[in-house]
Structure prediction request, 291 residues.
Amino acid sequence: MARRVRVFAAADGSGGNPAPIVLDAEGMSDAQMRAVAAEAGHESGFVLPAESDANADFRFRFFVPRHEMEMCGHATVGALWCLREARLWNASHVRILTLSGVVEGFVRDMGSPSERIEITQPVGRVEAITDPAVLRRIADVLRVSADDLLPHPVLNAATSRVKTLVALRSVAALDGLQPDFSRMEALCEEIGSTGLYPFAVESLADRRFHARQFPKSSGYPEDAATGIAAAALLFGLKALGLVPVDDAEVLILQGRAMGQGSEIRVRFHRAPDGDVLGCLLGGRVVPDAVA
Prediction:
């Protein structure tokens, strides 16, 4: 049976992205895993033993209603939380094999009221979309005008799957988006993206940003909290000069327009000499109804 949690919940425990998690998925077929995701209507995580030569503690697989995904940030955090609750992972560090490679997990502030799980993502890849015709199509699908946009390039960014970052002028403009979902999949296919991730600045000083995620073909129109999109956004913000490279957290607020306000925390993962190794992604996990 799948356990269901909400990952990246707000401070009061509300919101977050539901994730059904199966802690003993050994022997399940692809069709059975996809059926779990289809029944729940959410990204779902499946925990399996790691292969003996994998140099990992667990192997995770992820499905949405329509297909398997190579990586899912919130399902990874949720699965680690469930493993910890079930006393199947008691250390402060873990290595997880996924289709996108090995992901490391850490317990931050272990034993304190603020204890939470963080996972690694690699250094982000960022590329500007410059074709004027393509930029017009992105604006058309989002149904935004030039007045709604900040004067920043539109970026394809990724630490895992590519997300398209579109900077909007205000949180109100972001919350008011009503995209043309009938054209979303074709547009994302054209630009090599797995979803549009428009965002807006709440406070540069406090490093607070709002975002929404419109996936290419997951089987639902919008996501309440998308960990790998938030990780991609961190590197997009770096490329745009909106955040410095240091150890402070950046807060990504997502899901508000859906009534599922979520809080995703990301920060740069740096070597002792300051070199950027990637980023750390985490947030609050709370139990939800049984999936």
In short: The helical segments are 30-40, 73-85, 132-142, 171-175, 184-191, 227-239. The longest strand covers residues 276-287.
